[in-house]
Specification:
There is one protein chain. By secondary structure, the protein is of the alpha+beta class. Helices cover 28% and strands 18% of the residues. Strands 16, 20, 24, 25, 26, 27, 28 and 29 form an eight-stranded mixed β-sheet that branches. Strands 8-13-12-11-9-10 form a six-stranded mixed β-sheet, with helices on one face. Strands 2-1-3-5-6 form a five-stranded antiparallel β-sheet. Strand 5 and strand 6 form a beta hairpin. It is globular and about 90 Å long. It catalyses: Thiol-dependent hydrolysis of ester, thioester, amide, peptide and isopeptide bonds formed by the C-terminal Gly of ubiquitin (a 76-residue protein attached to proteins as an intracellular targeting signal).
Length: 832
């Protein structure tokens, strides 16, 4: 005992009591996915509060000298059944909320286990074990300090729990900005408790009461033809009255309230008062119509793709071992799970992060939980090692291993780190897998500034040719891209007659209140999608340097290089005529082998004449003060509730190229801090002009361009020339490549140092790989649901000559991979 007391006294100065701002990592190892339930338990450093598995605790001591750790070990066992309760589980209720783990939402499986917890202090390097209750005999002051530290660690919220919301609610709504200032007309309108009808058509369902003037009008038409006739939203566009409540959803607890101005479902704390204005007593109302969430859930379940994509109608063979590790869903994180499963099936990502695991861990900073390379390497090792690819424990009722369910890994640290500071990926809301793929690629770029970059497998050059129709002269530019976005020409569907017949049968069924007929999905040939991608696109109001005036041009897109791995996104998500996001329900037979050699760019041809390389004037002759903006597009966007200045910028920055392009710009820049600021054009410092002294380029943007193979000087010039726009800066470099080469040569001839000029040995341009345009399909990510913001993602990957489905924790051999219903496809170059 004297030896233990002496050891404790020697480490006492390093023992800290966690404070409110400290992150206590007591659920997960910083370098592995070991937890207190793992065989070796988890060791929490009593100074830094970092957690370590048995394999890494000694290495942490050797690196930092920290000697004292709190060892947690949990043993799971089935809860004893309550003999007083009736046998059997109650029937599962149908979900009524777009939520997980809350009343009315999708169920989280009830915790059927309880834990025996073992706690002790471990002192290294002697590996002295001191039980929690073995502190007797120590001076009271010492005993109290150590006991306080132990108690504080055990009761503190773990770092992962602070990041993770156990129950996700897709219906969490914000209070409308109109709720406390809503003007209600004194027009003596009184609304009866039932028997409502749209005042502009005969619809008696999906009716909305405008809370300003009391108009009752039908809702929007959904993408599948159901819903209403858009009379409520048209009324808003005519009057500007912002709030409407869905009749039939009013109960004493609330109702569905929509703000047309904010374009979202909202909360109205004054709802009872606003309804009373029209004679409606909330306390006496009963629910008679489906809420918007119930409609969304019903639509998801009737889409017909859920069972197909998840292969849920077939008994699938579970797979275990290296490369077959499932990932737990941390609350709508299936988009992340699917993307990283595919990425770590690619050798370049394995070599970068998994093969160099020890070196990455050795060079990790003091807090490895906040280091990108460490957490990506940890994730890759967790997926590929096979250590965590084991059947989940049986719950005593059904063998989970027969369903392919694994314990898998829970990448909480990784998700928290890659989402940090991002307005979407930091939340537990569902996200677009394509957007996350590009977000992750961008993070890899920033963290591979001077080292091997696995992104090179995806990177390719796009050649864009603009041909002025008035002069027949051409302009060629190149830009970097990572994804081929493939349009879906619905007019090329092979089963048009069948689709028309289905639409007619569906219309009749809706009129007669009968069940909808079995879904008929449009079948579009892949060849038609490729043709649409390669087809010339007309560009109106193109500034022709050959004419020094506006003209009409044709833009043609081709590949200037072919990547090792071709990523194809099927553009299934678009906006309807009423600007409601919709998903095209389409089947495209994607080929197992693909040859896109015909899309290879040719560059300037001998018979072609280039336009003069002259920058367009800041103010064109027919625009004496400011560029002409398409007012009809601006009006459309403003009517949807976006700020006027933001709409003007959207039309300007998309070059008057139409409503869809402007809407996409708005959706991409809504979170910008200057989103609603006035449009600032090049030329002066007031509204409608660029500030004369723009902010210096950000180091992140400079580093990203430098990582592509350009010099720092080139990056700075490009960013300054494009007002610090990273995307436009790369395009600018390609369009001025000859000038940059000449400047670099002049720098060298004048004797400037290598640090000040581009080295002769470093090629100008991004590091892209090139080769054959022939590919074979090796993975695809599928989406189920009506929009990217809801539903579910799974991925299929071809491994060892067979298809494997990764559905969160479920990993099985695929029987019928639904290759025609994918969202993102990954093709690997066929070796010549």
């Amino acid at each position: 005992m004297a030896e233990l007391s002496e050891a404790l006294l020697s480490v006492l100065p390093s023992i800290r009591v966690p404070k409110a701002g400290d992150r206590v990592h007591k659920d997960e190892c910083a370098f592995s996915f070991d937890t207190p339930e793992s065989d070796g338990g988890l060791y929490i450093c009593m100074n830094t509060f970092l957690g370590f598995g048995k394999q890494y605790v000694g290495k942490h001591y050797e690196k930092t000298g920290q000697r004292v750790y709190l060892h947690l070990k949990k043993t799971r066992k089935l809860k004893e059944e309550d003999t007083n309760s009736s046998s059997g589980d109650p029937p599962r209720k149908k979900p009524t909320r777009l939520a997980i783990g809350v009343e009315g939402g999708f169920d989280i499986p009830e915790e059927k286990y309880e834990y025996d917890e073992y706690v002790k202090i471990v002192i290294l390097p002697e590996h002295l074990d001191i039980p929690r209750d073995g502190l007797e005999g120590l001076p009271d002051m010492v005993k109290d300090r150590i006991s306080s530290a132990i108690e504080a660690i055990l009761t503190a919220d773990s770092a992962s729990r602070k990041q993770e919301v156990q129950a996700w609610d897709g219906e969490v709504r914000r209070v409308s900005r109109h709720a406390f200032s809503l003007q209600q007309l004194q027009n003596a309108v009184r609304i009866p408790p039932c028997g409502w009808k749209c005042s502009k058509c005969d619809m008696r369902e999906n009716l909305w009461l405008n809370m300003t003037d009391g108009s009752i009008l039908c809702g929007r038409r959904y993408f599948d033809g159901s819903g209403g006739n858009n009379h409520a939203v048209e009324h808003y566009r005519e009057t500007g009255y912002p709030l409407a409540v869905k009749l039939g959803t009013i109960t004493p607890d609330g109702a569905d309230v929509y703000s047309y101005d904010e374009d979202d479902m909202v909360l109205d704390p004054n709802l009872a008062e606003h309804l009373a204005h029209f004679g409606i007593d909330m306390l006496k109302m009963q629910k008679t119509d489906k809420t918007m969430t119930e409609l969304e859930i019903d639509m998801n379940q009737r889409i017909g793709e859920w069972e197909l994509i998840q292969e849920s109608g077939v008994q699938l063979k579970p797979l275990y071992g290296p490369g077959y590790t499932g990932i737990r869903n941390l609350g709508n994180s299936c988009y992340l799970n699917s993307v990283v499963q595919v990425l770590f099936s690619i050798p370049d990502f394995q070599r970068k992060y998994v093969d160099k695991l020890e070196k990455i861990f050795q060079n990790a900073p003091a807090d490895p939980t906040q280091d990108f390379n460490t957490q990506v390497a940890k994730l890759g090792h967790g997926l590929l090692s096979g250590e965590y690819s084991k059947p989940a424990a049986s719950d005593g009722e059904q063998q989970l291993d027969q369903k392919g369910i694994q314990d898998g890994i829970a990448p909480r640290m990784f998700k928290s780190l890659v989402g940090k500071g991002h307005p979407e990926f930091s939340t537990n809301r569902q996200q677009d897998a394509q957007e996350f793929f590009l977000h992750f690629i961008n993070m890899v770029e920033r963290n591979c500034r001077s080292s091997e970059n696995p992104n090179e497998v995806f990177r390719f050059l796009v050649e864009e040719k603009l041909k002025c129709l008035a002069t027949e002269k051409v302009k060629y530019t190149q830009r970097v891209d990572y994804i081929m976005q493939l349009p879906v020409p619905m007019e090329a569907a092979l089963n048009k007659d069948e689709l028309l017949e289905y639409e007619e049968r569906k219309r009749q069924a809706e009129e007669e209140k009968q069940p909808l007929p079995e879904l008929v999905r449009a079948k579009v040939p892949f060849s038609s999608c490729l043709e649409a991608y390669g087809a010339p696109e007309q560009v109106d109001d193109f500034w022709s340097t050959a004419l020094q005036a506006k003209s009409v041009a044709l833009k043609t897109t081709r590949f200037a290089s072919f990547p090792d791995y071709l990523v194809i996104q099927i553009k299934k998500f678009t906006f309807g005529l009423d600007w409601v996001p919709k998903k095209l329900d389409v089947s495209i037979e994607m080929p197992d082998e693909l040859d896109i050699s015909a899309l290879q760019g040719t560059g300037l041809q001998p018979e072609e004449e280039e336009m003069p390389d002259i920058a367009p004037p800041l103010v064109t002759p027919d625009e004496p003060k400011a560029p002409m903006l398409d007012e009809s597009v601006i009006t459309q966007l403003v009517e949807m509730g976006f700020p006027m200045d933001a709409c003007r910028k959207a039309v300007y920055y998309t070059g008057n190229s139409g409503a869809e392009a402007a809407m996409n710009w708005v959706m991409s820049h809504m979170d910008d801090p200057d989103f609603a600021n006035p449009l600032v054009l090049p030329g002066s410092s007031g509204p409608g002009s660029t500030i004369a002294c723009p902010d210096p380029p950000s180091e992140d943007s400079v580093a990203t361009i430098v990582s592509m193979g350009f010099s720092r000087d080139q990056a700075m010039k490009a960013l300054r020339a494009t007002n610090n726009s990273l995307e436009r800066a790369v395009d600018w470099i390609f369009s001025h490549i000859d000038d940059l080469d000449a400047e670099a040569a002049m720098d060298i001839s004048e004797g400037r140092s290598a640090a000040e000029s581009i080295s002769e040995s470093v090629p100008v341009g991004p590091k892209v790989r090139d080769g054959s345009g022939k590919y074979q399909l090796f993975a695809f990510i599928s989406h189920m649901g009506t929009s990217t913001m809801c539903g579910h993602y799974v991925c299929h990957i071809k491994k060892d000559s067979r298809w494997v489905i990764y559905n969160d924790q479920k990993v099985c051999a695929s029987e019928k991979p639904p290759k025609d219903l994918g969202y993102i496809y990954f093709y690997q170059r066929i070796s010549s």
